[in-house]
TrEMBL record:
GO molecular function, one term: ATP binding
Pfam families reported for this sequence: IstB_IS21
Keywords carried by this UniProt record: ATP-binding, Nucleotide-binding
The keyword Phosphoprotein is assigned to this record: no
UniProt lineage: Bacteria, Bacillati, Actinomycetota, Actinomycetes, Kitasatosporales
Classification via InterPro entries: IstB_ATP-bd (IPR002611), P-loop_NTPase (IPR027417)
Taxonomy, superkingdom: Bacteria
Name of the protein in question: ATP-binding protein
Domain called IstB-like ATP-binding: residue spans: 95-209
Keyword Chaperone found: no
Residues annotated as signal peptide: none
Amino acid sequence: MHTRHREPQLLGNEATLERMARILAARNIDPADAALPDDAEPFSPLDALLAGMPPRYQTAVADHPTVLEWVRRVTDAAVAPSRGARRQVTTGPSLLMAGVVGAGKTHQAYGAVRALVQSGVGARWRATTAADLYADLRPRPGVDSERELAAVSRCPLLIIDDLGAAKASEWVEEITYRLINRRYNYELPTLITTNLAIKDLRSYLGDRVASRLAQMTTRVEFEAVDRRRHSAAA
């Protein structure tokens, strides 16, 4: 996956309004002329979720037992901000998925987010590749990289795809540590995928990051089969 990271996605009414606004703007329709009748069928939370997902993963289904167990635990930990409100993801466990390119890790990650919504839980969420994250956080004129790091760090639910794909450096290690450490301290659920073998994470990420990941994540190694090539051959 090579998409740029996104602003936190909103599930529920706010996401519905944003999605409608984008659709109307694309069709050059004035929102004032597009009022829905009172009995119009509203967008579902799943519709709102799909509006913020890359098209390739909009039909993703999580079926790995460890991933489904993660969904269950995050769902159980969700709380309602007020009586009668939809339960929201606030804290919960994290998951580290390791395996070769094409093994289905990203598919499972997006499928897990879909499963959360289908279970009736809402969340502000965000997805990024590690390489895109580092590119956006590099100090440069006109960009408040510290503010951006803070925003990513505190997002209630985060997907970090392809951790370990970027070139290792002291700066990359430091940024990764600051991000992971904050999410570790606040117990914010994080879905991490990596092409590295779990045994190789420490040498790439450093002791501090590897130690935090070992404590905050459940780890699962996917079979060494590139499912993209397998599907193409079929």
